[in-house]
Write a structure and sequence with these properties.
The structure holds two protein chains of two kinds. By secondary structure, chain A is mainly β. In chain A, 0% of the residues lie in helices and 53% in strands. In chain A, strands 2, 4, 5, 9, 10 and 11 form a six-stranded mixed beta sheet that branches. A five-stranded antiparallel beta sheet of chain A has the order 1-3-8-7-6, with no helix packed on it. Classes of the chains: A mainly beta, B mainly beta.
């Protein structure tokens, strides 16, 4: 049973436009959420995170929004650049009990020049 | 910055071979993890360790074992490699909220 779902396996966006990547979760005990970015043949790298006590966190071109009532978070990239083309993984943490993060299946973002 | 080093970037092994994947961290983190990444399946947890000589099964432990004799080193062992174990293997360590990943090992079993 997938507790973290990324329902879009792929997304294509024109350079300069907004990219919106979505993530849904089912476990109400999750209290921290992270986004990782992965290029081919490299390990994932941390991008941005948000605590469940917030509804928005911004870092440069990247903003993560959290809607707790809908159990939904999204990553916005504005403006999108070709170098943003990568696989993006959403991850969730139940900091009260689990040692490991729970990951979604990833979304391949392609930014077209 | 925490550094997580995986000993090989690319490996090619034959079916039936015993394969060792090594991971070393340079911080004093207790928690270490092994994942495999396959297209469409995301990151799947194989095993993790929360202390020396301690290990716990993840979601897909079949066909794998692990060893953690020292805090900084966490090894993944494929007892008898099979073609369905061809994958990208990722080691990670955790010292706070998030993970730090190694660069990954692309293993091909022929």
């Amino acid at each position: 049973d997938q507790q973290v779902k990324q329902n879009s396996p792929s997304l294509s966006v024109q350079e300069g436009r907004i990219s919106i990547l979505n993530c849904d979760y089912t476990n109400s005990m999750f209290d921290y959420f992270l986004w990782y970015k992965k290029y081919p043949a490299e390990g994932p790298t941390f991008l941005i995170s948000i605590s469940s006590i917030k509804d928005k966190n911004e870092d440069g071109r990247f903003t993560v929004f959290l809607n707790k009532s809908a159990k939904h978070l999204s990553l916005h990239i504005v403006p999108s650049q070709p170098g943003d083309s990568a696989v993006y993984f959403c991850a969730a943490d139940d900091s009260g009990s689990a040692r490991q993060l729970t990951f979604g299946s990833g979304t391949q973002l392609t930014v077209l020049p | 910055d925490v550094k997580v080093t995986q000993s090989s970037r690319y490996l090619v092994k034959r079916t039936g071979e015993k394969v060792f994947l090594e991971c070393v961290q340079d911080m004093d983190h207790e928690n270490m993890f092994w994942y495999r990444q396959d297209p469409g399946l995301g990151l799947r947890l194989i095993y993790f360790s929360y202390d020396v000589k301690m290990k716990e099964k993840g979601d897909i432990p079949e066909g794998y074992s692990v060893s953690r004799e020292k805090k900084e080193r966490f090894s993944l062992i494929l007892e008898s490699a099979s073609t369905n174990q061809t994958s990208m293997y990722l080691c990670a360590t955790r010292g706070g909220y998030g993970y730090t990943f190694g660069s990954g090992t692309r293993l091909t079993v022929v």
